[in-house]
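# nightly structure sweep
# worker-07 picked up a monomer target from the shared queue
# config: single-sequence mode, recycle default, output format = structure tokens
# input follows
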Amino acid sequence: MGPEEHGGHCELIFDGLEIPDSDRLMGVGEGMKAVQIRLGIARLTHCMRWLGLSKEVSMAKIAVADCLHKAVDTAIQLLGAKGYSKDTIL
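# output follows
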């Protein structure tokens, strides 16, 4: 709804970043491997839900998101311009 709402994922670009060997958590080139190991499990879990193993979970996510959206939208509408300002948490 405003410029501070970027939505989705962001991309970070580091130009000329150098990290001293003493500050590295793993060896050079090992970070992506560690990330992929974690993401593989998460992707598998999502696929199981999408294929119908956790149908009720998907239904609940949609119902809760819709309810939350309606509640916040109503609150913003009731407060008018103040609902859209930074004066409220809405």
